[in-house]
Amino acid sequence: MARILLIEDEAILRRNIVDRIRADGHEVVDAGTAEAGIDLATLLAPDLVITDLRLPGQDGLHVLREVRRISPRCLVVLLTAHGSRDTALEAIRDGAYDYLTKPVELRDLMVLIERAIRHARALDAVECNRLSERRRGTLDAIIGVSPAIQELRLRVRQLAAAPAMKLRHPPTILIRGETGVGKTLLAHAIHNEGPRRDGPFVHVTAGGDDGADIETELFGDAGHGGGVARRGLFEMARGGTLFLDEISRLPADARTRLSAVMERRTISVAGGTGERPIDVQIIAATQFDLRAAVQRGDFRGDLFHRLNEFVFEIPPLRERTEDVSALAAWFVGKHAERLGRPAPRLSDAAVAALQSCPWPGNAREMSHAIDRALLVCSDCIEPEHLMLPVAGESPGDGGLTIRLPGETIELDFERDCLSLDEVEQRILRAAFAHTNGNLSRTARLLGLTREAVRYRLARSEAPTPSAAPPQAGGGDLIVPRNADAPRAAL
Questions:
Q1: What one-character DSSP code corresponds to residue 372?
Q2: Which of 15, 41, 113, 373 has the fewest CB atoms nearer than 10 Å to its CB?
Q3: Of 131, 162, 192, which residue is a domain's last?
Q4: What is the pLDDT of residue 210?
Q5: Residue 7 — φ and ψ, nearest 5°?
Q6: How many domains does the chain have?
Q7: Report field, pTM of the whole predicted structure over 0.70
Q8: Residue 348 above 90 pLDDT?
Q9: CA 462, CA 485: separation in Å to the nearest integer?
Q10: In this structure, are strands 399-404 and 407-412 parallel, antiparallel, or unpaired?
Q11: Per-residue pLDDT for 319 more than 80?
Q12: By the 8 A CB rule, do 84 and 53 touch?
């Protein structure tokens, strides 16, 4: 259903059109003069305005100009007499959506209305996607006060203002950094700060074992031999940005083809004929040293040099501890809003614990730790709520440490250790005790459903939720150091 404003001075025609539009389920208001119609447009913000070109007083062109000024997203359709066709065409050049010639066939008018409504909805979807994209990554979302982060913001602004970014073939950008540092966030920020901000941002993860699938996804398929034609991501990103996440994992055949596309700046669809020019900003990201990979023979040298035109290096969080406090506070606010609860404060001890943590998973791992803490804390986050690894208790890269009520388990994969089932059962019992036998909180803490927790408790012959006695204090749980968490700010 749409909200439609009809401006028509002929009373009988106006009533017939109103009745027909309402019969199709739309909301409609009407006016007999341009002045009354403009007042209604200001008050009601309609989706579509249908106006006669010739009206007493001000005419339909005045309505068009005023409606476009009041509500640029509103579409305007003109009703014209036979002799006013040239004026109607001029109005379309000035922003009118379409026109119909009188006498108006109601069936034709309803077809035009439905087409205009679909067009308006498509424009709304595009604008919604643009707003969503801009919220997904901007320079303001790059949190930090360290010299490295300030330099990063400066370089993004300088790059966005460079004349070369407005070219049809802008320089390729490579983002390097460990997992979790915010490479995707930086790619969004580069897109949203640059001249292609109103174009699409297409994100593709380059990993995967099936090279043919990723090639089709990137470059498309003409669909010969009874197949269905598919547009590739290069075409879908036209006028915008194509973000190739973890480029080092792109299969070899796809790397070869990508290198050729970047050299020629044209694309040939598999099974098709001819070449089409590409018009995209290419941003690639990797956590690995591509130069070393080239030297080992694991990555194409020509592709590396084409990707390496403009490089951003994001340092790991452990090298910029001055950013930890601000970043933690940002995560507290973000996760508290998502959970619908007041944001707790971080104690000085919690901040110190965060700053002393090496964060192998970087900002993503910190996001996960803060999210966990908000599930179990009240109005203040203390170190025990963060459940961080304790210094000296980790067996190193070959294992992890888990502290449970009354015991500490060290898993060292260089030698014999507990089975996965045994570790799972101990963690489950500890989490269940930590939440005082609360099934829902246990499920949230472990990222499971209530049914999954209930099943695992029953399988482990632990006390059922109804029979579990409340336990004060609860156990402290350490997750693996490389635990994955939602991608977030730098």
A1: H
A2: 15
A3: 131
A4: 46
A5: -120, 110
A6: 4
A7: no
A8: yes
A9: 28
A10: antiparallel
A11: yes
A12: yes
